[in-house]
Each structure stands twice: as C-alpha cells, then as structure tokens.
Specification:
- 9% of the residues lie in helices and 39% in strands.
- The protein is mainly beta.
- The chain has one domain.
- A 5-stranded antiparallel β-sheet has the order 6-5-4-7-8.
- The longest helix has 8 residues.
Length: 139
C-alpha cells in the first residue's frame, strides 16, 4: 500500500524539491533583529512575525530532543515498517523538525541528546523525505 503523500503547495515546494535533490532546505527570518531558522514552511516568522523569510540549505546535523517507538501506525502504508522510531530533532541551525529516526526501536530513551544526521529516503514514486539517523559524532 502506498504511503500518504505530502501536500505540496507553492509555499512548501522548495522544501520538497530540496528533499528530492537530497538537500535539507529550511527558512530563515530576514529580520536582522531575529534571523532565526524556521521549520515548517511559513509565510511569516513565528518568532518576530516578520513577513520576509528566505530559503537556506541546512547542514543536516541535529540533536535528538525526543523520540518514541511507534507500534500502531496512523496509516496502513506504514504497517510493514512498524515498530519504528519517530523523533523531534533540533537542527544545528536551531529549528525543530519531526521525522522518522533510523535506529532500532525500543532504544528511544537512550537516544535523547545524541547527535543525528539527515538522510533522504524514497517515500513514493516521485518523492523523497528527510529522515534522521543517530551518529556517533557529528559529520
């Protein structure tokens, strides 16, 4: 069964195109007093409310903030992968992302605070998505 596909619109298109090119693109606030990294794609900065954001290529390095083992999937297209890990990761640039974590299920608690690196995996016939893998040291 095919997994549900992302809704790609004009706003999110650069992110999804970047995934297909194996580049992690996020936004950064153009306000010089803010300049914070932003994820998920938005029309305004959630920190200072400036309406000017630019796309940047993130390093792909992150720290695992939280993770959990998924036993019961939200869609039948993920059943073959269960159990699997899903995590919140803080990118080196400061933005928080949620993604699948490519690690053994049930080791979730011991992964908190560990470094991770982005990888891109096929998610359907025409789309790759960003996932993360724990790493011993930052690449």
């Amino acid at each position: 069964m095919l997994k549900p596909q992302p809704h790609i619109d004009e706003l999110s298109h650069p992110f999804w195109q970047g995934c297909n090119e194996e580049r992690l693109l996020i936004q950064r606030c153009d306000n010089p007093q803010c300049g914070r990294a932003v994820f998920y794609p938005r029309v305004a900065c959630p920190h200072c409310h400036a309406d000017s954001l630019s796309w940047i290529e993130a390093s792909g390095r992150a720290r695992i903030v939280s993770c959990t083992t998924i036993h019961r999937t939200h869609h039948d297209g993920f059943n073959a992968e269960a159990p699997y890990l899903f995590a919140a990761v803080e990118l080196e640039e400061g933005a928080l992302m949620y993604a699948q974590l490519l690690a053994e299920p049930f080791q979730d608690a011991e992964l908190i605070g560990k470094p991770a690196a982005v990888e891109f995996v096929r998610h359907g016939p025409a789309q790759r998505i960003a996932v993360f893998r724990p790493v011993e040291t930052q690449p």
